[in-house]
Design a protein that fits this description.
By secondary structure, this protein is an all-beta fold. It is about 0% helix and about 55% strand. The strands form 2 sheets. Strands 2, 4, 5, 6, 9, 10 and 11 form a 7-stranded mixed β-sheet that branches. A hairpin with a 6-residue loop joins strand 4 and strand 5. The protein is globular, with a radius of gyration of 14 Å. The protein starts with a strand and ends with a strand. The model has no long low-confidence stretch (mean pLDDT about 95).
Length: about 120
């Protein structure tokens, strides 16, 4: 069982920056593919960025060049640096840990952290 706790959300003006962190308890994040998702009111939850256990990264087109995902296996955390924030980045951001092995799949979610981009 993995418990994920997000932090770092808040209110920021357009063009500003925030850094989200996801701390994992109960297991090491090094064996999981980690992702950040977001969900705006009335919309589905979408993948924003991901980093595999091997270190490969993925970014949604809408955040490429602005967001950077990273992991610190020693601290058991995954972070996402968000720069040049836009109002359309406003959403609840969720951390996800996923692992597939031998036909089984494990997926864990954090409770979410609110990011609001507004002047």
């Amino acid at each position: 069982q993995v418990q994920l706790v997000e932090s770092g959300g808040g209110l920021v003006q357009p063009g500003g920056s925030l850094r989200l962190s996801c701390a994992a308890r109960g297991s090491t994040v090094s064996i999981y593919d980690m992702g950040w998702y977001r969900q705006a009111p009335g919309k589905q939850r979408d993948l924003v960025a991901a980093i595999t256990s091997g270190g490969s990264t993925y970014y949604a087109d809408s955040v490429k060049g602005r967001f950077t995902i990273s992991r610190d296996n020693a601290k058991n955390t995954v972070s996402m640096q968000m720069n040049s924030l836009k109002p359309e980045d406003t959403a609840v951001y969720y951390c996800n840990a996923e692992r597939k092995f031998g036909g089984s799949r494990w997926s864990y979610w954090g409770q979410g952290t609110q990011v609001t981009v507004s002047s």
